[in-house]
Amino acid sequence: DAKTTQPPSMDCAEGRAANLPCNHSTISGNEYVYWYRQIHSQGPQYIIHGLKNNETNEMASLIITEDRKSSTLILPHATLRDTAVYYCIVRPLDTGRRALTFGSGTRLQVQP
Amino acid sequence: NAGVTQTPKFRVLKTGQSMTLLCAQDMNHEYMYWYRQDPGMGLRLIHYSVGEGTTAKGEVPDGYNVSRLKKQNFLLGLESAAPSQTSVYFCASSSRGTYQPQHFGDGTRLSIL
Asked: Which of B50, B99, B106 is opposite residue A43, by nearest beta carbon?
């Protein structure tokens, strides 16, 4: 799986948009970008995934650059409940292992 | 919607004891997984299953056994618990299809004394 690089921590004011970057410069053509988050003491939660087009769902938007070497997860109106560790994961269509490789992630702190 | 349910939520064992962790999902998912998460680290895959009656080893399988007798259940067994197995254990499931997201339970916190 391609390596991802995320900032270790970020702060965001409640009600503002949270923009979480991820660098995946070695991504290959068959690899998807997934975002998960883990709120303290809970299991990881799937947020969104995409291949090359921008994606949006009820939780967030995913912006992938044209060269696919980086992406940004956008939480449009962050709330205190969005405080969590956010993981960017790059995964091919079929790893054979079917595991998710969680790196260190970005710890997002939403401030009141 | 229950999703993925793990039991028990907490357990303390003595070294050498055995126990079984239960994972149940009600989403009719074909694939199920067991991960462990140690403090400050990411999740590591222990075993996984792609269907009833089928299991496979993940990244850190030693000291664990699994069984998938029913599609909705995936059991993780510790044969002889060791302090190194103190961890938080997460179960996940997903639909067939390689880009389908995994859905996680809330974990079992296991301490081995």
From this structure: B106
Which candidate, A26, A74, A9, places its Cα nearest to that of A48?
Answer: A74
> Looking at the complex, does the CB of residue B45 fall below 8 Å from at least one CB of chain A?
yes
Question: Do the beta carbons of residue B85 and residue B110 sit within 8 Å?
Answer: yes
| Residue among A44, A93, A102 whose CB faces B99 most closely | A93
Note whether B60 contacts A: Cβ–Cβ < 8 A: no
Other residues' Cβ atoms within 10 Å of the Cβ of residue B75 = 19
- Give the pLDDT confidence of A95-112 residue by residue, as tens digits: 545 677 788 899 999 999
- The Cα–Cα gap between A25 and A37 comes to 22
B104 burial (CB, 10 Å; 0-12 / 13-18 / 19+) is: buried
Query: Quick count: other Cβ atoms within 10 Å of Cβ A85?
Result: 20
pLDDT along chain B (113 residues), means of 10: 90 96 95 91 89 92 96 96 96 82 94 96
Largest CA distance in chain A: 43
The conformation of residue A8, written as its DSSP 8-state character, comes to: S
Amino acid A96: pLDDT: 45
CB contact under 8 A, A100 and B43: yes
Write out chain B residues lying below 8 Å of A59, CB-based: none
The number of beta carbons lying within 10 Å of the beta carbon of residue B14 is: 8
